Structures are given as structure tokens and as C-alpha cells.
Amino acid sequence: MDNLKETRVDGELAYQGRFLKVQRDTIQLPDGKRTTREYILHPGAVVILPLLDDGTVLMERQYRYPLHDVFIEFPAGKIDQGEDPLLAAKRELEEETGYTGGEWQFVTKIHNAIAYSDEHLDLYLARGLKAGAAKLDEGEFLETFTATIDELLQWVREGKITDVKTVIGIFWLDKLRAGDWKL
């Protein structure tokens, strides 16, 4: 696989905002030529698949400004610097929904934008949920609701759910429910 590897020659931070950083690197291609790569630096995030005792799934609706639309998503959020991903998942679930989970299992790690970001997302299944009061960040607005796995699958088929982390999480829930995949 070394015949595919690109090697960093040098680089610089091209942009640093409050949330995003963009790195610009000069790289050497496998054929020896040089070019640049620009990509978003991201500390990683967690995604929670919150399964209620009755088999329904706790979901969110949230407006996403870059696409100027409301999206159906799983609870999720950025991992703070030095934070354990499982603790981040527990924190995000409680902050966004008010729910706490009694049983947590790591599901998988995904990379959602491999061509232009180093971001990864750790997916966790949360069960044994207990309701509480949400603690939304200032400027964060969302609605929670429940749906069945079958409803979620139908919404993926219909294009009502297009968020990649949510689509992948729904497929995982379906496979786990069917016993096709184990954690």
C-alpha cells in the first residue's frame, strides 16, 4: 500500500475560527510530484443511538444552517480536548435530551468526510434510559421525539433522513435488532 501513500513535506494552519481549523499541507505524491492538500481539523465527535425500553428510538430535529433546513438526527456532539469519548457521549445525551443511559456499548467508529476532514465519530448504543431535563448550550435549539426503527428506515428510503451519521446508526440498529450483527 506504500504505492498509494502521500507524504507531508510541510504545512501551515490556513484558517482558525472559533469552531473550525483548516490545515494546508504540501505533500509528495507516490509518483514524486508535489501538490497541496487542505483539510478541516476536528477533535472528533460522538453519536448516541438512544434505544428506549419500548424499542423506540429517541431522535432530534435540528436546524442546520449550512443547508438551511431542519434535519432528523441522533444526539451527537464534539469531544472536548482530552475528554474520554464515552463520557462525551453521556454528557451530550443528557445536555441535548435530558436523558441518561444506564447501559452503554461502543458500536463503531466512522469517518464522515475523508476527503476534506480528519473528523471521526464514535457511535454508542445507550439503553436503560431515564428521562430528565435537557441542558442545551446557549444558542442551541432542537426538538426531541421518538420513532420506531422501521419508521426511521422508511424515512431513510424516502430521503427524509440524509444525515450520514444518522443513516449509518439506523442501519446498525436494524442489524442489531435482527441479530445479524453483535456488539
Automatic annotation (TrEMBL):
Q: Which reaction does it catalyse?
A: GDP-alpha-D-mannose + H2O = alpha-D-mannose 1-phosphate + GMP + 2 H(+)
| Name of the protein this chain belongs to | GDP-mannose pyrophosphatase
Which residues are listed as membrane-spanning?
A: none
> Which cofactors, by name?
Mg(2+)
Q: List the GO biological process terms.
A: nucleoside phosphate metabolic process; ribose phosphate metabolic process
Q: Which domain of life is it from?
A: Bacteria
Q: Name one GO molecular function term.
A: hydrolase activity
Lineage of producing organism = Bacteria, Pseudomonadati, Pseudomonadota, Betaproteobacteria, Burkholderiales
Q: InterPro entries recorded for this chain?
A: NUDIX_hydrolase-like_dom_sf, NUDIX_hydrolase_CS, NUDIX_hydrolase_dom
Record-stated family: Belongs to the Nudix hydrolase family. NudK subfamily.
Where is it found, in Gene Ontology cellular component terms?
Answer: cytosol
Ranges for domain Nudix hydrolase: 38-169
Q: Which of UniProt's keywords are assigned here?
A: Hydrolase
Q: Which PROSITE patterns match?
A: NUDIX, NUDIX_BOX
